[in-house]
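User: Please predict the structure of the protein below. I'd like the answer in structure-token form so I can feed it into my own downstream comparison script.

Assistant: Understood. Taking the following sequence of 97 residues as input:
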Amino acid sequence: MPRTSFGFADMRKLVNTVCSFIFLVTVFESSAFAQGCAMCRAALENSAEGRLVARSFAHGILMMLVLPYLLLGIFGVVLYRAYRKKSKQRQNPSYQT
């Protein structure tokens, strides 16, 4: 069974697709994902100045959801790159005299 390589261009295309999807979901559906606790939202939206606070509160909830996954993703990419570098060194050992 032939082994296919997953090249840099393929990885870049995958990352661009995932980033574009996340951006579109965030932009077009932020109100659906940022609803938060129903009681908190209802309490904040009862006053005129509370509406601005409610919107900020909803965006704060989104940040608390997104940032841990972003950090985990960055950590995963760093580990993946280190693994790839190490495996390439094992495949192509350089003999220096």
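That's the full token string. The mean pLDDT is 77.
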